């Protein structure tokens, strides 16, 4: 019997790392969870001991990762009985951080990442349409009706959580792990497009169509819709990279990033 995996997006974020012992991996996983809005402002992270257990790493690795997050002004650590590490930012430092990451990738590398990321997402969407129960489909649609904020930050949180739930509904542990790895590596860059209001509206409409196809049990339609959306986002990001390399703005028009 095939194993069932329905932990939801938040639990998926804390899934064990494939390569334990690297603070950078822990920091990247948590950073991108904050950027995507899965971890929200004011939220207290699990304890250092609990993070080490969930990620399958040493305690010192978690502590080093939290130092990186504090240096990036993403979390703050408070002492005392009600203390711990708390998320303190959702948007302010991310534009510079992500643009730096974008400049560090060659066009051919970005294009290849899009192919890989899209292929994983298409597989998740197809399996989700085949296997999702009505309750699963409702949970997926729930991401689209409970946006955690407005503007680019809220759109990223909604879209990022939606993609994670889509992977979870595939009910394939390997697909979920690979999606998490790829989303941590590439998802926030892909979702830079959501600083553009027009792109934001198109993605929101596309996600509603994807959720509806999954609810109807239409795997081919779900796969096609995901592929179309990934292609549109990839074209936007490649154009944005070209603009910035020529000294222009990240966004072609005025937009809230």
UniProtKB/TrEMBL annotation:
Keywords: DNA-binding, Transcription, Transcription regulation
Domain of life according to the entry: Bacteria
Domain HTH gntR-type: 20-90
Listed Pfam families: FCD, GntR
One GO MF term: DNA binding
InterPro entries in the record: GntR_C, TF_FadR/GntR_C, Tscrpt_reg_HTH_GntR, WH-like_DNA-bd_sf, WH_DNA-bd_sf
Gene3D superfamilies: GntR ligand-binding domain-like, Winged helix-like DNA-binding domain superfamily/Winged helix DNA-binding domain
Protein's recorded name: FadR family transcriptional regulator
């Amino acid at each position: 019997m095939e194993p069932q995996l329905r932990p939801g997006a938040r639990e998926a974020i804390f899934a064990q790392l494939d390569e334990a012992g690297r603070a950078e991996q822990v920091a990247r996983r948590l950073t991108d969870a904050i950027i995507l809005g899965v971890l929200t402002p004011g939220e207290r992270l699990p304890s250092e001991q609990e993070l080490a257990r969930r990620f399958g790493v040493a305690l010192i690795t978690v502590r080093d990762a939290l130092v990186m997050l504090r240096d990036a002004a993403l979390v703050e650590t408070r002492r005392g009985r009600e203390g711990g590490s708390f998320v303190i930012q959702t948007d302010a430092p991310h534009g510079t951080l992500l643009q730096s990451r974008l400049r560090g990738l060659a066009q051919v590398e970005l294009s290849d990442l899009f192919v890989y990321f899209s292929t994983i997402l298409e597989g998740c969407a197809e399996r989700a349409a085949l296997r999702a129960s009505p309750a699963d489909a409702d949970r997926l649609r729930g991401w689209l009706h409970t946006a955690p904020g407005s503007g680019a930050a809220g759109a990223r949180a909604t879209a990022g959580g939606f993609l994670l739930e889509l992977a979870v509904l595939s009910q394939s542990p390997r697909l979920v792990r690979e999606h998490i790895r790829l989303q941590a590596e590439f998802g926030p860059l892909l979702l830079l497009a959501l600083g553009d209001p027009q792109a934001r509206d198109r993605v929101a409409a596309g996600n509603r169509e994807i959720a509806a196809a999954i609810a109807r049990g239409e795997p081919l339609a779900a796969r096609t819709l995901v592929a179309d959306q990934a292609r549109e986002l990839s074209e936007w990001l490649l154009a944005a990279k070209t603009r910035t390399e020529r000294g222009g703005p990240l966004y072609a028009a005025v937009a809230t990033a």
